[in-house]
């Protein structure tokens, strides 16, 4: 379940970015990892409260993400798709390896009391930290839904998402919306990373696999569709857990990817997608 | 002689009937115009003829054989070529490359032919020379000067680009050429020049199915006209018959 | 004799002379680079000419490597048949997987190859009984044997000449292919797939053929690597390797026959000089990729084109 929820958060950021930017951001996985690292720095090295550290990490990661947008993605906007794709890969590569330099071979961990606590409700036992993550995810989703539907900013985001040229014509500042979307994307990824880091560990390569899976989720759920992303993300999380249980855990990832690839190929437009 | 015939053709998109029970024929070496208000289904009909989409029911036959199930590239192989409503060519490639691609169906590929080519250099050279000659001929035919061969298409004028598009389609030596709004974006004199080209093409033996909103131009060269409205064929006849028809004027002017 | 032919002649001469005049480690590096050129040339066909960007190329290379290693080790085939068979197996795999992934367009295809690369890597890493797991396999050397006449085991110098003969044969072959109508069709597919089809190009067939050829070359490169390095392990076929192959093609210049050459030599030089930087080397790679995307999308070939005003790439 943890996996599903963290995927959802990562995928959510990607969906938002793709919706407005129409560009796949392969560097996102690195932002996820760095978000986790920022959290570690504040919570373990500097002794802040874990949740405060997470919040700080979210903000820092948001800025990192925006920085990437301004320096790399924006200049590349009007180019064939593969250009941004390759640039994103390059960024991811640089950022992950920079992570190796900074983190070194140590395995870092984010300490949160809640990871030790187990709550009992409705006859089930659940890890508190995981519950908090799930709760956070729900809060974010609800907040995003409200923002997108009810606020001016949200409307601007939706407008930019469906037709950039038209949006520009009615005075929407695409650059600002883009920055906002990248910021949110980075923040959500950092949140996911921080929680995963507290429940498992923080390592420089931690972002790669979740990122790929998140992409498939985004494409599957329909690029730009939040609902689709959520449902697909949870489904994939469940799938991976089932596969880990049924087949040897080390093959779980491989088989999850295989099934995703298979479905991807059969329905290139995803389950909920619109025609691209 | 019937070149292409459609019988009770039907196509719907999500409940909306784009083409309803359309039966018509195109004869050899004639210019047939397809007119009708926007959304009448004209482009859909072209898409059905080129197997871009498959009909829900009904059939299309070309030279007596059904085209149902033929892959899109094979349609070119049997002799049907088309241009598109929005000018569609390879902007970043040279004029020569654009037209050469149009010759793809004339080149037999496949392992057997590659081996044949390697073993018989003379034959290959001859084939290449023939295709080369045809390419030059097509350039002449559409009134494009030879020196434009190596130019990148994006540097050409709108009329020149349209000539390239038609040249690419003609490169496959089609029996039937489908033109979707070829005159859009051209001024009066440019339009007449292109109409001349269309006439010359028909005179060389190729049938033309022409869609365009410039009714004056279309009526001036069409031999027969089909009128489509809401996916149905409402009238068929010579240009003068169509002009005089009340049904048609109602469609265009509204009741 | 045309200027071009003289230049090519001189270049070939230089290559022939290198092993005689250079220290062993240089020859070793040159040989590896040569193998990379073969692999990158294949990738260039798919990604540069046909426009389908593959992020998982190392996976295909791995198939050739493991197949060749296993064929020679477990089935006792000679390197010569093993490598050829391995290349064909990889090509066949490309054909089969192509049926699935070639229906995906653009970005989706790229993500699909990324996933495929991951799946293959996972396979190499986890299927221990066959692939030797993360330790990999130790591969036997190559024997050159004409019964009764000659019999010796390949040493570094033999590898060097063998690889570069292949490199230039393949380069020549690709040149013919790319300049033929087949090449034009690939480029047309890259520029506008739908239009190509409407003009009579058998797009599905071409895509499959291209992928099969690309995979053949990848498999060949893999087999060469396996037997030259006398070892295969999964680490050589992870995302890092895929990124490196893609980097080679991009730095050199997409859709340029000389691109893989430039790219491979640049990369090997970077690897050497940045060796001291350790992990920073990878960071620099990443930044190089990004910079090229922003400032010099045509790669080295593109820059040369502007300098010399001759066409290096399509």
Please outline the major beta sheet of chain A.
Answer: 2 strands, antiparallel
Number of domains of chain A: 1
**Largest sheet, spatial ordering of strands of chain A:** 1-2
Low-confidence stretches of chain C: none
Number of H- or I-type helical stretches of chain A: 11
Largest protein-protein interface: A-C, 42 and 42 residues
The total count of strands of chain C amounts to 4
Characterize the biggest β-sheet of chain C.
Answer: 2 strands, antiparallel
Main traits of this protein?
heterotrimer, B: 255 residues, six-stranded mixed sheet, C: 314 residues, mainly alpha, two-stranded antiparallel sheet, 14 helices, 4% strand, globular
How are the elements arranged and paired?
The complex is a heterotrimer of chains A (276), B (255) and C (314).
Chain A: H1 2-21, H2 28-45, H3 50-73, H4 81-103, E1 118-121, E2 124-127, H5 128-150, H6 152-162, H7 164-169, H8 174-199, H9 208-220, H10 226-246, H11 249-266
Antiparallel strand pairs in A: 1-2
Helix pairs in contact in A: 1-5, 1-6, 1-8, 1-9, 1-10, 2-3, 2-4, 2-8, 3-8, 5-6, 5-8, 9-10, 9-11, 10-11
Chain B: E1 2-13, E2 16-27, E3 31-35, H1 42-49, E4 57-62, E5 65-66, H2 72-78, E6 80-82, H3 95-102, H4 111-119, H5 121-141, H6 158-170, E7 176-180, H7 188-203, E8 207-211, H8 215-221, E9 224-229, E10 232-237, H9 239-244, H10 246-253
Parallel strand pairs in B: 3-8, 3-9, 6-7, 7-8
Antiparallel strand pairs in B: 1-2, 1-4, 4-5, 9-10
Helix pairs in contact in B: 3-6, 4-5
Chain C: H1 3-21, H2 24-49, H3 57-74, H4 79-101, H5 106-126, H6 128-131, E1 137-138, E2 143-146, E3 150-153, H7 156-179, H8 181-191, H9 193-198, H10 203-229, E4 231-232, H11 239-252, H12 259-273, H13 280-295, H14 299-308
Antiparallel strand pairs in C: 1-4, 2-3
Helix pairs in contact in C: 2-7, 2-10, 2-11, 2-12, 3-4, 3-5, 3-10, 4-10, 8-10, 11-12, 11-13, 11-14
